[in-house]
Write a structure and sequence with these properties.
This protein has 389 residues and is α+β, with helices and mostly antiparallel strands. It has two domains: 3-170 and 327-388, 3-Layer(aba) Sandwich (Peroxisomal Thiolase, Chain A, domain 1); 171-325, Peroxisomal Thiolase, Chain A, domain 1 (3-Layer(aba) Sandwich), CATH 3.40.47.10. Helix content is 37%, strand content 26%. Strands 1, 4, 5, 6, 7, 8, 9, 12, 13 and 14 form a ten-stranded mixed sheet that branches. Strands 3-2-15 form a three-stranded mixed sheet. It has a two-stranded antiparallel sheet with strand order 10-11. Helix 7 packs across helix 8 (237-247) and helix 9 (254-267) packs across helix 11. The longest helix is centred in the middle third of the chain and has 23 residues, at 198-220. The radius of gyration is 20 Å and the shape is globular.
Length: 389
């Protein structure tokens, strides 16, 4: 019996800002953004795209009519919750038209939550061979204009169909989690933006990776040579690279170092043009890896998930024969290539409208070519969604 990712897709809003231009506007040397943190573009979310609409947009192309009958659980992982009680999964369940007898709920632990959602789905499906679980990671990463975290913002969602006999990646029974109480990044109730200790966050991330990897290797007797590639949570592309480099010691062969380093670059290609999407960042990296490099069936991919506060987890999956046929490479390239660049001034106006919930569909939905869900209006604190095209 195998359980894993049968389908995977992502969605990002149609707007982005060029990081070099943002750096110049902030009187920062552009290479600090382009090379120092490793980001080229950053997705910008209009008011009309929140975690519900982005999550539904990420899932709509992988949920067939038959799937709607078989999905018995919908889990949304987010740290950008729009309600302290009502789960976004309930709204996404409605937008997608999934059968009514399904469990729907939301999970939170900073950027980590999509991983326990997957592990829960895996355990849930163990005795349910004819059912499926839809896991969605959807977030808008926001730190504020002119803030230290501004260049590590972004927006987007990743949707994964977890099933028996998956077509893409079969999960192995080898996950190791590591928990440590750290105030490296947190957002107290009522705060619009998170509080961040940048230096501590970097150190906590790397320590979490080293601890979970060391324990994983001890329990499984595996080494880095056993993996075709590794994927990391990617708040910015240089973060995971620092963690990877920390374990590429002199004892590791040059062939393994080269393979994993090249794999890391492939695994962060999409992230470089999207930015930080919190809970979905690891899984956007997985999509990027599988769509920019070629692997053989049976090869292992290692994954490191991290959520500030903090919980880290290292686990792995085995690639399934023909996995490439289940990917949407052309669709993803079109999604990224057909976005609209915003000037820094326009980006700032979009940012302010998002914070103030000021809708401007005439501007933000103009020339939209994709059939998408979007947030149309908010009346009496009730969100109303529409479809476009």
């Amino acid at each position: 019996m195998t359980i894993g990712i049968d389908q995977i897709d992502f969605y990002v809003p149609k707007f982005y800002v060029d990081m070099a231009k943002l750096a110049e506007a902030r009187n920062v040397e552009p290479n600090k953004f382009l090379i120092g943190i490793g980001q080229t573009e950053m997705s910008v979310s209009p008011v009309s795209q929140d975690i519900v609409s982005m999550g539904a947009n990420a899932a709509k192309n992988i949920v067939t009519e038959e799937d709607k009958k078989q999905i018995s659980m919908v889990i949304v992982a987010t740290e950008s919750a729009i309600d302290s009680a009502k789960a976004s999964a309930v709204q996404i369940h409605n937008l997608l038209g999934i059968q009514p007898f399904a469990r729907c709920f939301e999970m939170k632990e900073a950027c980590y939550a999509a991983t326990p959602a997957i592990q829960l789905a895996k355990d849930y499906l163990a005795n349910r061979p004819n059912e499926k679980v839809l896991v969605i990671a959807s977030d808008t990463a926001r730190y504020g204009l002119n803030s230290g975290g501004e260049p590590t913002q972004g927006a987007g969602a990743v949707a994964m169909m977890i099933t028996h006999n998956p077509r893409i990646l079969a999960f192995n029974d080898d996950a190791v989690a590591y928990t440590e109480d750290v105030y490296d990044f947190w957002r107290p109730t009522g705060h619009s933006y998170p509080l961040v200790d940048g230096a501590l966050s970097k150190d906590a991330y790397i320590r979490s990776f080293q601890q979970s990897w060391t324990e994983y290797a001890k329990r499984t007797n595996k080494t880095l040579a056993d993996f075709a590639s590794l994927c990391f949570h990617v708040p910015f592309t240089k973060m995971g690279k620092k963690a990877l480099d920390s374990i590429l010691t002199d004892e590791i062969s040059d062939e393994t170092k080269e393979r994993l380093t090249e794999g890391y670059e492939a695994a962060t290609y999409y992230n470089r043009y999207v930015g930080n999407i919190y809970t979905g960042s690891l899984y956007l990296s997985l999509i990027s890896l599988l769509e920019t490099r070629t692997f053989e069936a049976g090869q292992s991919i290692g994954l490191f998930s991290y959520g500030s506060g903090s919980v880290g987890e290292f686990f792995s999956g085995t690639l399934v024969a023909g996995y490439q046929d289940a990917l949407n490479i052309d669709g993803h390239k079109a999604l990224l290539n057909n976005r609209t660049e915003l000037s820094v001034a326009d980006y700032e106006s979009y940012f302010a409208r998002f914070d103030n919930l000021e809708f401007n569909h005439d501007i933000e939905l103009a020339d939209e070519q994709n059939a998408i869900f979007y947030l149309n209006e908010i009346n009496d604190n009730i969100r109303h969604y529409n479809t476009l095209n």
